[in-house]
UniProtKB/TrEMBL annotation, chain A:
Membrane topology reported for the UniProt record: Multi-pass membrane protein
Family of the protein in this entry: Belongs to the binding-protein-dependent transport system permease family.
Alphabetical list of InterPro entries matching this protein: BP-dependent_transpt_permease, MetI-like, MetI-like_sf, OppC_N
Database matches in CDD domains: TM_PBP2 (cd06261)
Primary location group: membrane
Name assigned to this protein: Glutathione transport system permease protein GsiD
Automatic annotation (TrEMBL), chain B:
Gene3D superfamilies, per database record: P-loop containing nucleotide triphosphate hydrolases (3.40.50.300)
Matching CDD domains: ABC_NikE_OppD_transporters
Name the UniProt record assigns to this protein: Glutathione import ATP-binding protein GsiA
InterPro entries: AAA+_ATPase, ABC_transp_ATP-bind, ABC_transporter-like_ATP-bd, ABC_transporter-like_CS, Oligopep_ABC_C, P-loop_NTPase
């Protein structure tokens, strides 16, 4: 090797290119996790589709009279039983001669209320349980996690069936939501606990304590906000699942009473005449499917948007 | 290879013709496709590697050094491709090779040692399995017995004592250094002609690093394997390689003979790098000619920083004691199965004092207890035994209120700038947090203070409304420093505060810390594993090993006249320690 001399190469120096170490380069736009996620969502057509379905369902739930003039339980005439579409009744009639379209519109509020209530109950129990168990650790964690495990080991749907059967005298939207949400929170608690376990060991949490901030205050201010991503995703998807659960319970006859308008009830009742009037079954099922799908798609989109790595892959 | 005389190396392989390059890289371009357009990571890079030669590519993160290395074996990440130029391996261009053709190049002709020994071995398979797998894949040996024998040979060669028994163990039973030996063993398993080592030791302690590199060097020399070393450490590169390639922003800015570049750098960027490298500064302190290296460049020179500390020795003694630690102990109990537990003395009776306005460096390798000591001093954990007095306040007897007040006087900057700032809070909110927690001022005055602090750490004030994800590591560390200074503390604990930064940025932050110390009369407790940095920033040093302070004293005394063999070993392990600067 010795006879080979190594050439000393020096790149031409560009006099304009002043090497300034670590210069602050700020883009025009502000950027943080939520802003970036929002920008990402705004660019996706599927987001608009899912969002408009959700919006339609919400408006229908709040102001059903905007969509239909027909009241769902009035004007039911048996002569219309299982009849096809007619003037002012675009989707035909149920076996009882009620307007299918109107019942679907009025049923939206039940489905949405159950969905939101279940999510609220799940969050109200699951978030404190998961956050406290993960953050404080030790015996607190053991205790809360075991309680969670007990609930986790009971299939929440089975539990809801039992609860609704026992409480058959008090069936209403709140009770059914409690029956579903009261047993579904354990998986949320688990997800959050795992996330908190990871976040609490990051240096900014230690830095906050080194400054003198109290433990609980640190949990609320730094740990929880940074652990919420999977929670939001889970809750969005859980909303869709809760609507399905209510419909299933109502279909089985242990959900909401007939007096309350509900897609599940309508599907259950239409089932008896499926051979003669399949469309009376089809329409509420379609409404249910599209609504649930919209929430699940929304959850997935939010998850992708909140994950910078998933953003980069696209 | 000539057909008349065939030389053979120790391994019995015919020697390649030393005058013909083994690998020729010509105008290499690598492009990554990202969501925001194409990124040209490597732009027009050319170099040759001759048989048996050691070449080092040096650069900061993002300079394209690792990308260049992975392009040689076409292991670029999925969104990357070679968009121009040629890579000739033994005269054949491999840029058009299929995956199948590449398989014959990888391992057999070019071996690869990845960066992180902790994540590059599969934890569910035994070490032996993984070595055997590599050997089988490279077709070096066939048949169970031969493969087993070869695997043992490879591991022994890599310096793994008791290879036969340890082969059946799993990666978690190996230390970082041992794992790196295994990876080197796998890389050399098929007798490649070139071994690419991508930051092979940056995750390891310095003493382990030295042993591994020494071994790698002797091994490649013995087998006449060429070595391409990728590193961020100029000192290490110059010490180990005969040829140096300095990369910056995807381009080669300077290349040539290592010593030549170190002593007579031509390109301004190279000059900056050399001036900023603490490991080289430690050498240059002893030589006057070395100072000429950075003439005519607008750069932060570590040498000047170090010299500043040299004059202040007499002043130290005169200053009052700010932090005093006596017989500090911290014992954890480690569960050992069943109901048994064993005590672990993380900090085992250490004592030190820091005078006001000075810097004490607490130095040690991983597991030495230095970070635990910092946590104890900060009051983040209660000590098992011992006394900590900060500014006249004994922490042991202090009430909750007194401890809370003490936090105002003592702040901390952590190692990882990417983890120490809450990503969901604005920079302004992060810096103002200590003020808010301690109820200092109102909204308006706090905002004014935040702007003042941003200016103090040389960041634009409009950053207050921005978020950490827009900043680089060095800028984040400035924010962390601003936060630490918010309450006008007297003591700042710097826990590996510059270890994660590139050298130029590191130099800048060290300069900033020195300026702030002078301006505000701060007292620093500097926790680090990097002795080279200590030399340029600390007035006094305490060396920790296994929870005990083995040696302590003024920085110069320790560096020039270390009494303990452990300290001496640490000093010798500083990369670049063997470089002569004076001649």
């Amino acid at each position: 090797m010795s006879e080979r001399t190594t050439e000393h190469y020096v790149a031409p120096v560009d006099p304009d290119e002043k090497v300034e170490v670590d210069r602050v380069k700020l883009s025009e736009r502000k950027s943080n996790l939520w802003l970036d996620a929002w920008r990402d969502l705004r660019r996706r057509p599927l987001f608009y589709i899912a969002m408009s379905i959700v919006l339609v369902v919400v408006v229908a739930a709040l102001f059903p009279s905007l969509f239909t003039d027909v009241l769902p339980n009035n004007d039911c005439f048996l002569e219309n039983s299982n009849a096809g579409p007619a003037e002012g009744h675009p989707l035909g009639f149920t076996r009882q001669g009620c307007d299918v379209y109107s019942r679907i519109v009025y049923g939206a509020s039940t489905s949405l209320s159950v969905g939101l209530l279940v999510v609220a109950i799940t969050a109200a129990i699951g978030i404190p349980m998961g956050a406290i168990a993960g953050f404080y650790g030790g015996w607190v964690d053991s205790l809360l996690s075991r309680v969670g495990d007990i609930f986790f080991s009971i299939p929440y749907f089975l539990a809801a069936v039992v609860v609704m059967s026992v409480l058959s005298a008090h069936r209403n939207v709140f009770v059914i939501s409690l029956a579903i949400g009261g047993f579904a929170w354990a998986s949320l608690a688990r997800i959050l606990r795992a996330e908190v376990l990871q976040v609490k060991n990051l240096e900014y949490v230690m830095a906050s304590e080194a400054v003198g901030r109290g433990r609980f205050s640190t949990l609320l201010r730094h740990v929880l906000p940074n652990s919420l991503t999977p929670v939001i995703v889970y809750l969005t998807i859980a909303l869709g699942a809760a609507i399905t659960a209510e419909a299933t319970l109502s279909f089985l006859g242990i959900g909401l009473p007939n007096t309350i308008m509900s897609w599940g009830n309508d599907i259950a009742q239409a089932q008896t005449s499926i051979r003669v009037a399949p469309m009376a079954l089809f329409w509420p099922s379609l409404a249910l499917t599209i609504t649930v799908l919209a929430f699940i798609v929304l959850g997935e989109l939010i998850r992708d948007a909140l994950d910078p790595k998933a953003r980069a892959r696209r | 290879m000539t057909d008349t005389t065939v030389q053979t190396s120790a391994s019995g392989r015919p020697l390649a013709d030393p005058s013909k390059p083994l690998v020729q890289v010509k105008d290499l371009e690598v492009t990554f496709k990202t969501g925001t357009g194409d990124v040209h990571a490597v732009r027009g890079v050319s170099f040759d590697i001759y048989p048996g030669e050691t070449v080092a590519i040096v650069g900061e993160s993002g300079s394209g050094k690792s990308t260049t290395a992975t392009a040689l074996i076409k292991l670029l990440a999925g969104n990357g491709r070679i968009s121009g130029g040629k890579v000739l391996v033994e005269g054949k261009d491999i840029t058009g090779y299929s995956e199948r053709q590449m398989a014959s190049v990888r391992g057999g002709v070019i071996g690869y040692v990845p960066q992180d020994p902790m994540s590059n071995l599969n934890p569910v398979w035994s070490v032996g399995f993984q070595v055997r797998e590599a050997i089988r894949a490279n077709g070096v040996a066939s048949g169970r017995k031969d493969i087993q024998a070869k695997a043992i040979e490879v591991l022994q060669q890599a310096g793994l004592a008791d290879a036969e028994r340890r082969m059946e163990q799993y990666p978690h039973q190996f230390s970082g250094g041992m794992r790196q030996r295994v990876l080197i063993g796998i890389g050399l398993g098929a007798d490649p002609k070139l071994l690419i080592a991508d930051e092979p030791t940056s995750a390891l302690d310095v003493t382990v690093q030295k042993v591994i590199l020494d071994h790698l060097e002797s091994l490649t020399r013995e087998l006449n394997t060429a070595l391409l070393l990728i590193t961020h450490d100029l000192g290490l590169a110059a010490e180990r390689a005969s040829k140096l390639i300095v990369m910056h922003r995807g381009r080669i800015v300077e290349s040539g003979d290592s010593l030549e570049i170190l002593q007579h750098p031509q390109h301004p960027y190279t000059k900056q790098l050399i001036a900023a490298a603490p490991s080289l500064a430690s050498r240059r302190i002893h030589s006057s000619t070395g100072a000429a290296v950075t003439e005519g460049v607008d750069a932060i020179d570590m040498l000047k920083l170090a010299v500043k500390h040299e004059d202040t020795e007499a002043v130290i003694e005169a200053a009052p004691v700010m932090v005093s630690v006596k017989d500090l102990r911290k014992t954890y109990s480690i569960r050992r199965g069943g109901f048994k537990s064993e005590p672990l003395h993380a900090v085992d009776g250490i004592s030190f004092e820091i005078h006001k306005g000075t810097t004490l460096a607490l130095v040690g390798e991983s597991g030495s207890g230095k970070s635990t000591a910092a946590r104890l001093v900060l009051g983040l954990e209660p000590p098992t035994e011992g006394e900590i007095v900060v500014g006249g306040q004994n922490m042991a007897g202090a009430s909750a209120k007194q401890l809370f007040d003490l936090r105002r006087r003592m702040q901390v900057v952590f190692q990882d700038p990417y983890a120490s700032l809450d990503p969901q809070r604005s920079i302004g909110a992060i810096i103002a947090e200590p003020l808010k927690v301690h109820g200092v001022g109102d909204r308006v005055s706090r905002h004014a203070r935040v702007e003042e602090l941003l200016e103090q750490v040389a960041l634009p004030t409009e950053l207050a409304h921005r978020y950490p994800n827009e900043l680089s590591g060095g800028q984040r560390q400035r924010v962390a420093i601003a936060r630490a200074l918010a309450l006008k503390p007297e003591v700042v604990v710097l826990d590996e505060a510059v270890s994660a930064l590139d050298v130029l940025v590191q130099a800048q932050i060290l300069q900033l810390l020195a300026d702030l110390q002078e301006e505000l009369g701060l007292t620093y407790l500097f926790i680090t594993h990097d002795l080279a940095v200590v030399r340029v920033v600390a007035d006094a040093v305490a060396v920790m090993e296994q929870g005990k302070i083995v040696e302590a004293g003024p920085t110069d005394e320790i560096f020039e006249n270390a009494q303990q063999p452990y300290t001496q070993r640490l000093l010798d392990a500083i990369p670049g320690a063997g470089i002569e600067f004076g001649n």
